[in-house]
């Protein structure tokens, strides 16, 4: 097991599915690019437990804050003004928080990969 696979395992709330995706997404990067990818990805990544906590806060007055945090401003505004789509949307998001977070983290991995491929080094 190499250093970067261990580094990914230290990310908070990382799942086996995410580890597999990251291994596949970073296939072909050299050592310096892997370091840069890890730095960029770890700063952009969201912890699934944080998203769950923010979604639960939606039941107590600020529905949609988890959508704002994940960059979905339109859905955040919709959730805010409809009370989490009458709490049904918030309940669905509390159930599906891992999927929502994984999809967000996939987008951030692609962004980090593109930044590294363009030539950015962040270590």
From TrEMBL:
Its main location: membrane. It holds the Pfam family TM2. It is found in: Membrane. Keywords: Membrane, Transmembrane, Transmembrane helix. One of its GO terms (cellular component) is membrane. Residues 51-95 form the TM2 domain. It is a multi-pass membrane protein. The chain crosses the membrane at residues 51-69, 75-97. The keyword Hydrolase does not apply. This is TM2 domain-containing protein. It comes from Mucilaginibacter yixingensis.
């Amino acid at each position: 097991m190499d250093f970067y696979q261990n580094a990914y395992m230290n990310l908070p709330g990382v799942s086996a599915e995410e580890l597999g995706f990251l291994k596949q997404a970073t296939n072909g990067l050299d050592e310096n690019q892997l370091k840069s990818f890890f730095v960029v990805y770890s700063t952009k990544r969201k912890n699934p437990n944080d998203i769950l906590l923010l979604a639960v806060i939606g039941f107590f007055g600020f529905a949609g804050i988890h959508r704002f945090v994940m960059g979905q401003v339109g859905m955040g505004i919709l959730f805010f003004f409809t009370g989490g789509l009458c709490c049904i949307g918030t309940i669905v998001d509390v159930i599906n928080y891992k999927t929502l977070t994984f999809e967000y983290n996939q987008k951030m991995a692609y962004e980090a990969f593109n930044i590294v491929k363009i030539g950015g080094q962040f270590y």
